[in-house]
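Worked example 3. Consider a protein that binds asparagine.
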Amino acid sequence: MKDEKIYTKLTSSVLKYSTDFFHEKGFVQLMPVILSPVTDPLGPDPGSSVIKTGEVEYLGQKLSLTQSMILHKQIAIRAGIEKLFIISPNIRLEHPKRKKTGRHLFEFSQVDFEIAHAKKEDVYKLMEEFLVGLVKKIKKEHNEELGLLDRKLPDIKTPFSKFTTTKLKERYGKEWEMSASIEEKQPFWTISHKREFYDKEDPEKPGEYLNYDLVYPEGFGEALSGAEREHEFSSIIRKIKGDELDKTRYAPYLELAKKGLIPSAGGGCGVERMVRYLSGAKHIGDVQLFRRVPGESVLV
Ligand code: ASN
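Given these inputs, the predicted complex is written out as structure tokens:
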């Protein structure tokens, strides 16, 4: 079997597993949004290398290509959809230097979810169960394909370890995420990073954040990022100002936030990154039938 056929079959299984998992837990599946006046700013973040936000001018309106559906997730929670998920395509126009990382794409999809009134511990539990089940299913149903790829996928044990970003920086320096990913034998959580305005700052400990990333072992890097959310208008506006973002770009979201958002927590798990981890692919572009690697020209 050709590798591209194997990766495509694995991707299909990952999509089915993710859809079934969230439906079985009572989540409502939303359709993805592709164009909107508001999207995730993806920063300011020293780790981000998006060179610009994709935009389309349509009938006098400036619409952005979705970088993530985080703001729409908060709006959907506000509309009373208490547990939701989306298989969400994202466009992130990354700097061409990201070609070399092996884990960046400028077009990818994430399994994006959000839960009203949830706390970070609820997300740890849910997504640990998700990943354990996924690895079990792939090993059971794709033993032959994993063999053809020479991939020995380790079993996963929960609960995963948790490390603060500060601790990992002390231990590993600037490249802490990759170094820890290479070092660790099991997936692990990194917690409390200063990130986008919508991730909640700990009200009891300012300067600490109620957010988390899940990181794969064996050097495969980040699997998921998420957080408990800022839902109070005053905190949101203070943080948008602090991040020097143009608040007029968030006007429709801010209008709703002023009327009141509902506390929630959630995250997003990259589909192609799941397939790369499961299959052991060297470069994430290899798992896409239609490659979207920054710095490479697009064939089809
Ligand atoms: N999906 C992520 C979240 O829920 C946001 C992102 O992808 N930037 O926090």
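Take a moment to read the result before moving on. The longest strand covers residues 107-116. The chain has nine helices and 13 strands.
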